[in-house]
Amino acid sequence: MKRIYVELLFLDNFLLDFFLLCCCSRLSERCVRLSRVAAGAAIGGVYGMLAALLPPLRAIVCKLPAAAILCLPLGARPLRLYLRRVGFFLLAGFLLGGVLFSLRCACPAAGALPRRLFFAGLCLFCLLYELLLRQSYPRPQRAYTLCFSLYGRRFCLRAVLDTGNGLCDAGGGSVIVVRRNAVLPHLRPEEAEALLDPARSSLPMRSFACATAAGEAILPAFAPEDLTLRDGARVYRVKAYLALADLSPASPGEALLGQNLRLHPAAFAPQNISHPIQGESL
């Protein structure tokens, strides 16, 4: 009687489906959280165990709906993008199946362990590749749009990378220097005073050491709501504090980005993005 280890079946299918879902996510040009990819791979692992115990589930009429269910954690809206992901998943699965069949014919004596190690290598490579692609930083000579919410108002400011400034604090956090007169005139007097006085502010605040060609200074900085950075059609999520300062009139932007500012892609696909008016109320 042949023994079936369900935990190994789950592991094989999880690793394989994780690789395939990462491929279809990248091909669909839309960034997806790795936790969602892992959730879809877990569904694939459960389906693989059930298919081993129930042979009718191996039929193509069952595999197609299973592929559609696997792609659900990646997002079902818009429908056109979801269907494209399912198509990419099936295409990548057929191609990988052909590669594995060729390897099996070339090495018929290979057991389950080399195959499992191959799956683990594919999954690890895909994971490291995704993490590497998601490490982005501002580039010089490129214009960005910095968007954030503050006291119920939405601000969209021109931002550029300032390679001459050293922006840091003792905790290693990131800070963006924003032109003072681009924000304060759109706030009420008590709100503007709270941004300059950490004791009165209701927002998280820290002090940053700012070193420029004109000298050094300690700037109070606050953490805004919904901070994003736009580069054309690309949208990045940013975790940083904003420090208000009097920038030079010759500065090309209303916000200066630090070189250590890490950008997390929110979307890869081109989108029609509307830019709210500076200081517009939500």
SSE topology sketch:
Elements: H1 6-27, H2 34-53, H3 60-70, H4 79-106, H5 112-133, E1 144-150, E2 153-161, E3 166-168, E4 175-179, H6 189-196, E5 205-212, E6 215-222, E7 225-231, E8 234-238, E9 241-245, E10 255-257, E11 263-267, E12 280-281
Parallel strand pairs: 2-10, 4-9
Antiparallel strand pairs: 1-2, 1-7, 2-12, 3-5, 4-10, 5-6, 6-9, 7-8, 8-11
Helix pairs in contact: 1-2, 1-4, 1-5, 2-3, 3-4
Question: What does this molecule look like?
Answer:
With 282 residues, this protein is an alpha+beta fold. Helix content is 39%, strand content 24%. It has helices at 6-27, 34-53, 60-70, 79-106, 112-133, 189-196, and strands spanning 144-150, 153-161, 166-168, 175-179, 205-212, 215-222, 225-231, 234-238, 241-245, 255-257, 263-267, 280-281. Strands 1, 2, 3, 4, 5, 6, 7, 8, 9, 10, 11 and 12 form a 12-stranded mixed beta sheet that branches. A hairpin with a 2-residue loop joins β1 (144-150) and β2 (153-161). The longest helix has 28 residues, at 79-106. The chain is elongated, with a radius of gyration of 25 Å.
